[in-house]
Amino acid sequence: MIGLGKMGLPMARHLLGAGYRVVGYDPSTASRDRAAAVGVELVPSPRAAAEITHAALVVVGFDEQAVEVISDPQDGLVAGAASGFVIGMCSTVQASTSVAMAEVAARRGVVVVDTTLCLGEPAAENGDMLIMCGGRGDVLDRLLPVLSVVGKDIFRLGDVGAGQVGKMLNNFLLWNCVVANYEALRLGGRLGLDLESLRQALLLSSGSNWALDTWLRSRPMPWAEKDMRILLACADETLLPMPVAGVIREEITEIKALKNAWKEGEGVKASMDEFTRAHL
């Protein structure tokens, strides 16, 4: 397990509970300490992890981090992996990054597949994530028992990179819903409606969406801008006009900045319900 943070740690815990040996790496001392406390066997580098295992799940935050932990010539996974080693790209990165890492890995007989994670931290804690995959079917067959421990619904969308595209589109729809919910509930509040009664009604109507269903949860939104940047880069590459996406990028960036600054920075942990009620 490469990355032992808010997603990687609960995944490691579930795998340990299912009887797997879990070897892990994270540059953060705090993350390593928490992982050691639940029984993860820590190693000093991704390379060291690859040298004593047969597969790795990469759960880091950004493209450049994924590239480093996979392809660094001294300490990356590929440097320590034997032929046949499998890397599951759980991180949300550009599809081109997954494809490029697959090409680099293939030179050493290592296979990269997409295993992107949906539904966030609560689903990681519960072991019931939705996982969008892309890559060789035989390799995904090998990973399926592992993925089934941490996920409930697993979809294969195509070749390597396809899982990243699926996750990108999912996140685009998520941020559309967050912005639309926020604006609708603010307007409802200003017009005097009971917001929780309104939310419950909408959840039973055609306006229902997952973001509205989880409106009362803490929602830090750390990756919103990154998600929209990946989407708009793909739109540019394919010459597809996506005017709504440009608006959503601006809106979600503004909402996140306001929320994170709210209550002297404590707003980052607040639910969208709390934030909306405070900004009618």
TrEMBL record:
Keyword entries, A-Z = NAD, Oxidoreductase
- Catalytic residues per the record? 167
Q: Does the keyword Cell cycle apply?
A: no
Keyword GTP-binding in annotation:
no
Query: What are its GO biological-process terms?
Result: organic acid catabolic process
InterPro entries cross-referenced by the UniProt entry: 3-OH-isobutyrate_DH-rel_CS, 6-PGluconate_DH-like_C_sf, 6PGD_dom2, 6PGDH_NADP-bd, HIBADH-like_NADP-bd, HIBADH-related, NAD(P)-bd_dom_sf
Q: Which PROSITE patterns match?
A: 3_HYDROXYISOBUT_DH
All copies of the 3-hydroxyisobutyrate dehydrogenase-like NAD-binding domain together span 161-257
* Domain annotation 6-phosphogluconate dehydrogenase NADP-binding: ranges: 1-158
What GO molecular function annotation could you give as one example from this UniProt entry?
oxidoreductase activity
- Pfam families to which the protein is assigned, alphabetical: NAD_binding_11, NAD_binding_2
To which protein family does this belong? Belongs to the HIBADH-related family.
Please give the name of this protein. 6-phosphogluconate dehydrogenase
Question: What organism is recorded for this protein?
Answer: Mycolicibacterium iranicum
